[in-house]
Amino acid sequence: MFAGETGWDIAKPTAVLVLADGTVIEGHGLGATGSAVAEVCFNTAMTGYQEILTDPSYAGQIVTFTFPHVGNVGVNDEDIETVNMAAASGVRGAVLRADVTEPSNWRASRHFSAWLEARGIVAIAGVDTRALTALIREKGMPNAVIAHDPDGRFDVDALKAKAAAWGGLENLDLAREVTSAQSYRWDETPWTLGEGFGRQEAPRYKVVALDFGVKRNILRLLADLGCEVTVLPATATAEDVLAQDPDGVFLS
Question: Residue 1: pLDDT above 50?
Fold first, then answer.
């Protein structure tokens, strides 16, 4: 059983979240099918779910949203934080309280579930996310497997074993997974209503940004402040940085 919109609904779950301690949380599946093993964390923001799910700093994690209504304004092509769209999605999964509705926003260009599927993100809805957040607060962020099968067929014992066996994020080089492969210049400035994103016109300072999972809006703000931004991958050497003759260096 899982928490539905009107109390407790008895229905065949199409997604499960299996914690390393053997706890099994059932719900409705959306997004990509299949399974992913990751660390479960939470986010209490009421808006910005698309930015959160494209934030490279969530690499290797399943994000639990405490705010119940996620996905209700759809997604668009602007509210994306990762620069490296060629990389696999850093986020492994998403845990939601309410089922995703049809998008209702003038900027929406795609349904949230379809976007999750395209990004390879497995998601589960119908979960008491605040109870899960309380568990995380008390016991720490657990390792888990999130799985989605439209037919509701799960080998729960195998999923428990997979969650328990995973070594976690410690000692993983996550920056290498999300960094850009090549250097590039950044001159895009923040979005404004009616104008969209702007372009920098008169930079005053030369700044090198080392991409350990940099966010687009950070780069936009640097450009807006007059910085001529050159982004280098996480594998850049000191010589690579000094070759740019920068006024400053920003570590993402």
Answer: no
